[in-house]
Amino acid sequence: MPRISHIDICPPSLQDREFVAAEDRIELRPVPYSAPAALPSWVGRRTSRPIVYLTLGTAFGTPELLTTAIEGLARLDVRVVVAAGRVRPDQLGDVPDNVTVQPWVAQADLLPHVDVVVHHGGSGTTLGALAVGAPQVILPKGADQFANADAVGAAGAGVLLLPDELSADAIAGHTQKLLPRHGHGGHRDAARAIAEEIARMPSPDQVARRLPEHAARR
To answer: What is the chain's mean pLDDT, rounded?
Structure first.
């Protein structure tokens, strides 16, 4: 019985070698998408302060964890953009001047401008950050997030903070290490290498044109 081909958007360097070698794997470049939403007006302007993007997705975010992360990140000489997700911004109280909180952020538009992404480890944010070469601090809570965090950490493109390690100090310290000019360049270099790998993957248009060939092999 012939094996059924499948489309795979994960870059090879984050996967098991035997799985990547499978003949029925159709490589496809992950292409981020965000519904239209306004970005802070200063995004995209020249600034001496790095930009940190903080999101905990739509399923696992809590006011307590977001508040802790904001407290830690606000101590750094950065600008922080927070996508609050299911957490109402008013649940976070007053935030420091270098923090902008929005219910929803056009992530695909924001990511090319950020220096570090602090997030939950969801596949969309993980791959989106990798595609632009941004190192990551991952705070996994469930689902596929631990596996994504392990893969990013093993590739050297980010760091992992487990639930029992979370604190404002830990988040600030790990993020500081990934900032340009202040931290260790190895994580940024690894993230950029994966971004180049993603850019070489076939585009959706290229894959779509070759799908009849794969169908004919069945």
So the answer is: 86
Fold of 6-207: Rossmann fold (3.40.50)
- Name the β-bridge partners of 8: 27
d(CA 29, CA 10): 8
Helix (H) / strand (E) element for 81: namely strand 79-83
Strand 136-138 to strand 116-119: parallel, antiparallel, or no bridges (unpaired)? parallel
Angstrom distance (rounded) from CA 182 to CA 16? 33
Label residue 75 by pLDDT band (50, 70, 90): very high
Q: What is the mean pLDDT of residues 25-33?
A: 81
Q: Examine the pLDDT at 5 and tell me if it is beyond 80.
A: no
Domain residue ranges of the chain, discontinuous segments joined by +: 6-207
Beta strands (DSSP E) in 28-77 are 51-55
User: 63-73 and 168-178 are packed helices; what angle lies between their axes, rounded to 10 degrees?
Assistant: 50
Question: Residue 123 carries which side chain, given as an amino acid letter?
Answer: S
Secondary element (H or E) of residue 204: helix 204-216
Alpha-carbon gap, residue 95 to 70, rounded angstroms? 8
Asked if residue 149 has pLDDT above 60, the reply is yes
Distance from C-alpha of 133 to C-alpha of 198, rounded to nearest angstrom: 10
The answer to whether residue 1 scores a pLDDT higher than 50 is no
Residue with tokens 């008013």: 90
User: How many other CB atoms sit within 10 Å of the CB of residue 196?
Assistant: 10
For residues 37 and 127, which has the higher predicted lDDT (pLDDT)? Answer: 127
